[in-house]
Amino acid sequence: MANERPKGKRIDEPTGTQTVGHEWDGIEELDTPMPRWWLWAFYASIVFAVLYVIAYPAWPMLHRGTEGVLGWTSRGQLAHEMAEQRKRDAPMLAALAQTPIERLPENSPLMRAAVAGGRAAFKVNCVQCHGAGAAGSKGYPNLNDDDWLWGGDLKAIENTITHGARQPDDPLTHVSQMPAFGHDGILTAAQIDQVASHVLSLSGKARDNAAGAQLFAQNCAVCHGAAGTGNRQVGAPDLADAIWLYGGSRADIVAQVTNPHHGAMPAWGARLDPVTIKMLAAYVHSLGGGEDFVEAAPAAKTDEKP
Amino acid sequence: MRSPDTIDVSFYEKHKTVHNKRVDGPFRRFKWLMMAVTLTIYYATPWIRWDRGPYAPDQAVLIDLAHRRFYMFGIEIWPQEFYFVAGLLIMAGIGLFLMTSAVGRAWCGYSCPQTVWTDLYQHIDRFIDGDRNARQRLDAAPWGPKKIARRALKWTIYLLIAFWTGGAWIMYFADAPTLTHDFWTGQAPAIAYLTVAILTATTFILGGFMREQVCIYMCPWPRIQSAMMDEKSLTVTYKDWRGEPRGSLKKAQKEPDAFGDCIDCMQCVAVCPTGIDIREGPQIGCITCALCIDACDKVMAEIGRPRGLIDYVTLEDAEREKAGEPARPAWKALLRPRTIVYFSVWGAIGLAMLFALGTRAHTGISAEPDRNPPYMLMSDGSVRNAYTLKLRNMESRPRPMRVVIEGLPGAAMWTDEIGRQDAARTLTFTVPADSTASQRVYVIARPNTASQDFGFAVTSVDEQVEMAETQTRFTAPGDE
After folding, report:
1. Do the Cβ atoms of A144 and B376 come within 8 Å?
2. A74 contacts: CB under 8 Å, gap ≥ 6
3. Do the domain assignments include residue B480?
4. Which residue, among A5, A30, A203, A245, would best test binding to B if mutated, counting the most B CBs under 10 Å from its CB?
5. With pLDDT > 70 as the criterion, what percentage of chain A qualifies?
6. Using the beta-carbon criterion (under 8 Å), do B373 and A135 form an inter-chain contact?
7. What total number of domains does chain A contain?
């Protein structure tokens, strides 16, 4: 095409190309023509952009963006991928539903799957009290150690999760009620101090005293045992070990005997499906303190198969 | 002539197809050789077998993305050793610098894939449609049954080569015979088909149609090279002081003294695969394939003038020659501080990598302590820490590995499988061939043990006894 030559633009002799018309200290820029295929690639990308805007969510409107004729959404894609994953997990979940929890360790792939599933469920349901590492805190039991209030084998853990602790609506819930020895006037403050000394002596932290030992035998041994080693049937903690749910100092023990804390745990049987509870139990069991399941009475064993 | 006020301006340049003429000569033969070598390497390498025993693939060169292993003959590289690949890439880069500073754009001219495949496709053009003039005629001819048939045939061959090229690429990423079988029976993964489709399309378009446009408009390398070349780099040069002014043989016979050696036969332009005129001087479109040297030498021989009107010359030598001084031997252009430094760096990296490869241990251990909770007080007052041990076995056979606690007096360890009753200072695990086993261990220390550093040592207890160790920390109450 023949154009009016703009001011300053000229043809560069060696290359035969027009300059853009600017000049800095004698340096000029050539306006080298683009290849035509580049132009077509540019048009093609415009066409692609238009098609994309029609096909996919793109254009912001007053309340929400255009939806695109393909109906794709990132949320929909997530739902689709979740459904795919559930489909893949279905055989594992079915096998888990059929396997009694105490039989789980015999099937190590299933056990691993259960632990992995339990780890995920734990993060959603349990970390609020027991902590992200399941190490608990004062008043909330540590699930990593080898000290269990209500038993540490798979079946006992499953039972504890299902029915919780101190849930009035669940008849099978764990209930233990330590009397408020000080608050209700059963023991005097001086007697409580003597008992505390005896309790501390069980783990070698104080010298024993006869008065405390006698008070312990009269008031405490019925649940905590004569040696203070606790009783899982009634959820009485072991007082002779190094682990203290409400603290192991003299003041902590005095406070607990005077007016005991009674921790509660939800009965998850009412909130979670049995398979999830199994997975949670497997995970908690795997944290390092899990105990082996011992058949209580072999005669009572029933054949699961019809 | 252009008038001073109106000029012809087109912002977009129409693509002119290059119909390069057939030529023969030493450089053309070298190009044939390079094409044969590079294409053979590319297509054949995945089919070379290499026995590594029952636990590793028997393909000589394999990039096993699924298992994160890179095999190259006797060398096996794990992902954490990716610095070897980085080193190879650095060597390739420095090798390219070395090549460029010594012999200019030799990479562009002979071994760049774009050059090799363009060359291959230009031979297809010649094979189907004839040489330069026939192809130009066919291009200009109106579309008719004959032209359609020719084009269909040619593009089918283009496609077949492109498909073969794309197909060869995926063979580097899986066992070639298995993948070939799976590919044709529809069992190969979708990514294999997609990769072949994309590479078929790019080969078809870039080799069949874009050709020199890639070098001139898309490739950054020609631009970078101008920074690497200097007055001592070899480049294809038209010796204008000898050739100009141009004049045909007839004119030169009439006025023998008025003209230079160039008879303006345009053979250098006709044979050029990128369609440039070398007589305009060094330019970005010149890939220095030297086909114009072949063409010009042939013409000079026919008309009885000395060869080398177009020749590989350094800028420095060109200046000397122009001034009438004798040319210097080529090795002087090759042996100079710059090329020696490049070569030394290149060689040093290569030797360092070979040394590292030869002396690396095939046993490894790392220990990661649990951070939440950092320690665990047990009911008997002892303190437990948990660690995830990674036991690395880089041999192609399963190996028993003995792990020992080093330091931390009185400590013992157990695992979920072994149980606390069997806790010991030494445990032995069997690590599968060519893999890293992840093993969680619990380490228990006596009551009142303070926080302290300690280590795990691992020994592969087979014929090739190897040791490795790692330091980690034991955390006790009061030191969170």
Report:
1. yes
2. none
3. no
4. A5
5. 93
6. yes
7. 2
